[in-house]
Amino acid sequence: MKTLKVSIVTPDGPVFESDVEMISTKAQSGELGILPGHIPMVAPLEIGAVRLKNGGNTELVAVSGGFIEVRPEQVTILAQAAEKAESIDIQRAKEAKARAEDRMQAKKDDVDFQRAELALKRAMNRINVTSNK
Ligand code: ATP
User: Fold this and answer.
1) pLDDT tens, 115-130?
2) Which residue has the CA at smallest separation from atom 21 of ligand 1?
3) How many angstroms separate the CA atoms of 107 and 88, rounded?
4) N or C: which end of the chain has fewer CB within 10 A?
5) Residue ranges of the ATP synthase F1 complex delta/epsilon subunit N-terminal domain (predicted)?
6) SS3 80
């Protein structure tokens, strides 16, 4: 099987670096499934899961937005935050979810609401990634 080199990088350093057979995730323009030899492109990502398939295994990484750069033999994801499923603190994500929901209920102004909505998306993404691992 042909493989692609995938790097997922955050300001704190690399989170994932490995060769995979397929990577799939959600860009703002829709679902992306990338195999070796894909045409070069750059796209903004949604807050979501990145699925990395190799040898019958699928690893999940929670990514908080950012960009994906695709080249035929290499994929790089640059994101503000990214966590492998096994390094997600589920309790912390549940607390962040509850805090965000409270803030959305309080509806002080649009800025607070949008910030809370993004925090809620990050928390729910982390919870989904841990429950699907
Ligand atoms: P919180 O309110 O719990 O900090 P957040 O969504 O505001 O959540 P971020 O700003 O996205 O957090 O991330 C800050 C740093 O903390 C990043 O390095 C991110 O990888 C890490 N992080 C956030 N939540 C978790 C979690 N539940 N488990 C592991 N690492 C986390």
Assistant:
1) 999 999 999 999 999 9
2) 81
3) 29
4) N
5) 4-82
6) coil
